[in-house]
Amino acid sequence: MLGFFRSALKSRVGIAIALLFLGLIALAFASADITGSGFGGVAGGDRAAKVGSARIGTAELAKSLTSAFEQQRQKSPGLTMKQFLDGGGMDGVLNDMIDRLAIAEWGKKHGLAVSDRLVDSEIVKIPAFQGPDGKFSQSAYEQLLAQRGLTDKEVRQDLAQGLMARQLLLPAAFGSQMAPEAVVRYAALLTEQRTGTILSVPSLAFAPASAPDAAMLTAFYNAHKLRYMQPERRTIRYALVNEASLKNIPAPTDTEIANRYKLNSAVYAASEQRTVTQVILPTQAAANALAAEAGKTGALDTAARAKGLVPSTLADQTASTLSGQTSKAVADAAFAAASGTLAAPAKSGLGWHVIKVDAVKRNPGKTLDQAKPEIVAALTLEKRRAALSDLAAKVEEQVDNGTGLADIAKSLGLTVASTPPLLANGTVFGKADEKVLDTVGPLVQAAFAMEREGEPQLAELKAGEVFAIYDVGQLTAATPAPLDRIKDGVTRDWALDQGSVRAKAAADKILAALAKGTPVAEAIKLAGVALPAPQPIAMNRQQLSAMQQQQGQVPPPLALLFAMAEGTNKRLEGPDKAGWYVVSLKDIVPGDVKRADPIFAQASREFGTVVGGEYAESLRRAIRDEVGVERNAAGIKAVRNQLTGVSAQ
Prior knowledge:
Domain PpiC: 231-359
CATH architecture of the largest domain: Orthogonal Bundle
Largest sheet: 4 strands, antiparallel
Protein name: Parvulin-like PPIase
InterPro entries: PPIase_dom_sf, PPIase_PpiC, PpiD_chaperone, Trigger_fact/SurA_dom_sf
CATH topology of the largest domain: Triger factor/SurA peptide-binding fold
CATH class of the largest domain: Mainly Alpha
Strand order of the largest sheet: 16-3-18-17
Subcellular location: Cell inner membrane
Main location: membrane
Helix content: 40-55%
Oligomer: single chain
């Protein structure tokens, strides 16, 4: 219910807390591989900013910007580094780095610290550092750090800064409340009722009757090329290597089979497992007494519970596992008794055990001839996987030596296939509903991280079974679509552009007439063309909030209606020059909220969160001011120039 109102109050509140936790590491492991390198030697000095006694280096800033850009490019494949930086990427990333470092410096000054064990606990939680068993893998950790050009020190420092921010900012926001009087005032806005009218003045209603000539259309296209940008696309050439690619794999020999049987003799030997019920008593006399009592009825469980004792069950125990849990004497006694009978009381370090054998499972084992088929299958699989691994090593050596994909495939007798042009999200260019084959899907992200065509790489697609040799076949940069291919769309856009100017003039006439008190029905005639019928509006903020929750957004004219003063009229431009809106607000009926109303309690909780965010934001600003921040404009400009390929002036 409060979603709309909450979004209207958003500032940098949540960002102050959330983004401080997302630094270099979070970005690096949440996005594609970082492809940029060579950040050293940036003109303009090696310092982007000084924060207290610490500094943010230009290389560090460049690395963080590249990481953030790669993450955003996953969402917007056509995004360029220049667009990212011009759109606030530079300021956003640098400000977050400054905030994190300022909080770390302030914490250090006041005796606060983040322990190594706490950092360790955060590292093991990162999924990218986990092995196939879902647990932290040191080798995976070291490998990923090497791939992304990071050091253990950088990872730990980054996480420590995020943890310090969490320790300082979250308590500032915790438990905050807004004064009840203020809650009543703001909550009343949620039940406020507004009535008015929305007029639509579409651009096409004022579009020129005749189509543009070639010169006019070309001039319009050239002036708006960014509107017609096609995202970067790439073809991926690949050859799959699997067990079918292997030749002349020798069959397991009798000696190998015999050795494997001998190695796993414990697996194939006859064995016995027993499920037992046991009761442990402190003395031999007590054990003998319980055994005698249970022996009369054969029910150890009943006899034990009658004496206030609780038996336990040990299922599927071998002699060795039972011995490990109790003692050799207890295990020997249990395995000497027949199924369904009581074993002689025996002693362990815990006391005297009275045991009943509930069930016996006997495995007769397997002879060499009986085990041979499964041993042959296992050895054959191992040989094929070993051969595949050796083949992968040879391919990797050829890749490292600069051998091209076609030559590698030819030497192995493989067929090279190619995908159609793909976007970074794996869809086929020009066919949004068609995705790349699942076989090639895992290669897309890495292929879009490559800097140029014709540089083969090796990738494992299915552990120990399938890998691919692949490269970028053709790289087509983000460019405007050719005019002849999109002529109809450009012609329509030209008509909208021309009509938009006239539609705006018509909207201004209507607006001026409404300001003089002219009725809506009369004012609309001043447009000179037929317009859509006016849309009457009668709505409260609760309905507006419900609309936002259901549709994800509120139509801009409605949002404007709820931001206007009573008795006023406003003009609003529609998206993509499709037209204009004239919004007229007739009256406002204030809402009435009492402290006993359910909406009051809900609003109090919501506004408490907002107030807490403001407290955290205030603390963030105060910390930055106390620590002191100096930006090095020359260093920042040098990083921008380097990332956008602009030569230093």
